Amino acid sequence: MATKKNNTIKLKFDSARNLAPAPESKSAAKIDPQYDLFINGKFEKPSGKKYFPTINPATEEKLSMIAEANTADVNKAVVAARTAYDKTWKKMPAAERAKYIYRIARMIQERAREFAIIETLDGGKPIRESRDFDVPTAANHFFYYAGWADKLEYAFPNRRTEPLGVAGQIIPWNFPLLMAAWKIAPALACGNTVVLKPAENTSLTALKLAEIIQEADLPPGVVNIITGAGATGAAIVNHADVNKIAFTGSTEVGKIIQRAIAGTNKKATLELGGKAANIIFDDAPLDQAVEGVINGIFFNQGHVCCAGSRLYVQESVFKEVVRKLKDRLETLIVGDPMDKNTDIGAINSKAQLDIINKYIRIGQQEGAEMYQPSCAVPKKGFFCKPTIFTNVAQSNRIAQEEIFGPVLAIQSFRTDDEVIEKANNTPYGLSAGVWTDKGSKIFNLTTKLRAGVVWANTFNKFDPTSPFGGYKESGYGREGGLQGLSAYVNIIENR
Ligand code: NAP
Ligand code: MG
To answer: What confidence tier does 3 reach under pLDDT thresholds 50, 70, 90?
Structure first.
């Protein structure tokens, strides 16, 4: 029964969208004050005794101290991985390997809430995304590749495969747990062992994954997770006993890695930057397309290599689409990533926010017209309003260079050929999107756009069964699906 007190409760509404704050509780997440290196199944202190802080980019508060691995630690991890490969993992029946991988998948699901909270606290992405996308998709990758472990003969019919050996895996800060899953799951399924380095800004969920790997009783040394900055990554790349490098990150570091492994027999897959074009034709369902564009660039603060950071709109609907986009921007909530209503969380670091703001200034100096919604942005922490530019020229830097933030460059086009030419006119080729009612247009564009993934009437859809990877300076090799398996085996043609 309602009491007088209940009747007088005043709901505190968020002025942006009239929604009451709905913060996720931090209590389900246990973050230790300090984390060591996970080598040979145990957590070990770094030999240089150095630690660096990891912060919450939404509050600038320190969350924990993370061990910095030097070359001696990297060597220890590689030796552990080599020993585990030779003595245990390579010899284990594939169906047994699969059981471990399934176990990891199930344990991620069991601890999904904790993973989501830590991912959001450490990286700044909205809890809705960590909860509904990052963590379940990471678990799905382990499930999917566990299924392949004892079926490689069907994946590669009439050919024999053997694992590569020790895989050195280096990942960025935008999808920390998911990128670890993308890399570890297929490597293990094919019988390789792993030394993985997360990005220095976002090591926590990889270290939580190390706890799961320990609890899952994976043989020591099969997965080693070592933390540190670029120098630690370089030590993995340069280690003579690493057989494969799997790298996701910037094109700049990708080129350094290519140079470092030239002349060695190390295999590599490189997933690098992007400057994806989203293309809206005048026959497209416009509201759906606008929603897809919003999702494509503002999802995860634009910290997505395949983000739809360029938009091409057919001239006859250009004004209408831009108006709809501006209207939709007004409704987005920028702020506390732990709030379940938040659409755009914190930029991952001060350094990344500076890069984004630099490009926003460049866009204005280049003569493009900027629009940002009127929403409030928290004073503390690293935040950026969603930003769109019109009056953009194809040669402008904001249309050519990767910004890796919530910034969209919009241009118009008249014909199919013109938009294909413009969409292909960047050094990158990771992804693209086509919005149209006509199947024939979709087929025409998907065959001519030089991008690894082309979405039609949707954007940023991921599934473990689909291969993902780039053309041109977006890298080479594929992750996900069957193609993701072939990146971790030597194929011997005659059985
Ligand atoms: P980054 O600087 O290239 O870093 C990626 C990883 O490499 C981090 O773990 C980094 O360590 C490490 N690293 C840095 N220098 C290294 C070196 N010389 N040798 C070996 N490893 C080194 O990229 P980021 O700034 O973290 O991430 C943003 C970039 O990644 C964007 O350009 C984005 O497009 C790209 N990205 C691509 C994909 C894809 O799938 N294609 C996915 C996500 C991101 P520290 O961070 O600890 O310094
Ligand atoms: Mg952090």
So the answer is: very low
